[in-house]
């Protein structure tokens, strides 16, 4: 058994996968472990299909021989396995550290069961220490960020540091949908629902990294084992 908590969580999630399932394939370093181990099982004969939540996960899934398909109007996925940047005991999350939150939300919504895999450091009592990513369309982005700033002030977040995410290769980071990501350093989010509603009402904001009200099964791992299990 591995001592890497992310891999341990991924392996625990693999136990939930059954023959014939349609799967959501998450994004990030924890989801990467899951996809790689799933690929091994597929090569041993497991019959599953997946919908990747990012181009990076699509490439990885293809390289690991996992059959892929597209979400259609009537598609219902059996199980979505994805990581998280922060998660509270009641399952509220910040996601989008990898900038994939839009596809991740669509896939989570289409799934009968949503399982979050992470190392235990992602467990928090209050969201917000991790900067909240929001996806913003490029047109009028400066005006959109101005509106975001005004909404934050109206909600009591004074002088929030907001930065457009940079790409490793230079320039701005671009999401798989061709949008930008702004990271909001809020420190502490007292009312995630009110914040999410206010931000998503702003034209130009596509979505936020807040995942709220999901019926999420949490698999949190340490170097020695699973939390609560
Ligand atoms: C990507 C995500 C990831 O699930 C999140 O950033 C966690 O990543 P990691 O498993 O690398 O810690 O939301 O958009």
Automatic annotation (TrEMBL):
<feature type="active site" description="Proton acceptor">
    <location>
        <position position="104"/>
    </location>
</feature>
<comment type="function">
    <text>Catalyzes the reversible conversion of ribose-5-phosphate to ribulose 5-phosphate.</text>
</comment>
<dbReference type="InterPro" id="IPR004788">
    <property type="entry name" value="Ribose5P_isomerase_type_A"/>
</dbReference>
<dbReference type="InterPro" id="IPR037171">
    <property type="entry name" value="NagB/RpiA_transferase-like"/>
</dbReference>
<comment type="subunit">
    <text>Homodimer.</text>
</comment>
<feature type="binding site">
    <location>
        <begin position="95"/>
        <end position="98"/>
    </location>
    <ligand>
        <name>substrate</name>
    </ligand>
</feature>
<dbReference type="GO" id="GO:0005829">
    <property type="term" value="C:cytosol"/>
</dbReference>
<dbReference type="GO" id="GO:0009052">
    <property type="term" value="P:pentose-phosphate shunt, non-oxidative branch"/>
</dbReference>
<dbReference type="GO" id="GO:0006014">
    <property type="term" value="P:D-ribose metabolic process"/>
</dbReference>
<comment type="pathway">
    <text>Carbohydrate degradation; pentose phosphate pathway; D-ribose 5-phosphate from D-ribulose 5-phosphate (non-oxidative stage): step 1/1.</text>
</comment>
<comment type="similarity">
    <text>Belongs to the ribose 5-phosphate isomerase family.</text>
</comment>
<feature type="binding site">
    <location>
        <begin position="27"/>
        <end position="30"/>
    </location>
    <ligand>
        <name>substrate</name>
    </ligand>
</feature>
<feature type="binding site">
    <location>
        <begin position="82"/>
        <end position="85"/>
    </location>
    <ligand>
        <name>substrate</name>
    </ligand>
</feature>
<feature type="binding site">
    <location>
        <position position="122"/>
    </location>
    <ligand>
        <name>substrate</name>
    </ligand>
</feature>
<dbReference type="GO" id="GO:0004751">
    <property type="term" value="F:ribose-5-phosphate isomerase activity"/>
</dbReference>
<keyword id="KW-0413">Isomerase</keyword>
<protein>
    <recommendedName>
        <fullName>Ribose-5-phosphate isomerase A</fullName>
        <ecNumber>5.3.1.6</ecNumber>
    </recommendedName>
</protein>
<dbReference type="InterPro" id="IPR020672">
    <property type="entry name" value="Ribose5P_isomerase_typA_subgr"/>
</dbReference>
<dbReference type="Pfam" id="PF06026">
    <property type="entry name" value="Rib_5-P_isom_A"/>
</dbReference>
């Amino acid at each position: 058994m591995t001592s890497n908590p992310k891999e341990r969580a991924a392996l625990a999630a693999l136990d939930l996968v059954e023959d014939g399932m349609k799967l959501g394939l998450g994004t990030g370093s924890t989801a990467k472990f899951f996809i790689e181990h799933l690929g091994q099982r597929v090569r041993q004969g497991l019959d599953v299909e997946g919908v990747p939540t990012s181009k990076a996960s699509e490439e990885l899934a293809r390289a690991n021989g996992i059959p892929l398909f597209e979400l259609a109007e009537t598609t219902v996925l059996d199980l979505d396995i994805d990581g998280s940047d922060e998660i509270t005991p009641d399952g509220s999350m910040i996601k989008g550290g990898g900038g994939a939150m839009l596809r991740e939300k669509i896939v989570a919504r289409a799934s009968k069961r949503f399982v979050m895999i992470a190392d235990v450091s992602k467990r928090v009592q209050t969201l917000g220490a991790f900067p909240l990513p929001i996806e913003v369309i490029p047109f009028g982005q400066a005006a959109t960020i101005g509106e975001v700033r005004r909404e934050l002030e109206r909600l009591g977040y004074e002088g929030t540091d907001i930065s457009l995410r940079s790409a490793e290769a230079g320039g701005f980071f671009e999401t798989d949908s061709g949008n930008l990501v702004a990271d909001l350093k809020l420190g502490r989010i007292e009312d995630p629902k009110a914040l999410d509603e206010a931000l998503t009402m702003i034209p130009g904001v596509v979505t936020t990294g807040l995942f709220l009200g999901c019926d999420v099964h949490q698999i949190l791992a340490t170097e020695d084992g699973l939390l609560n299990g």
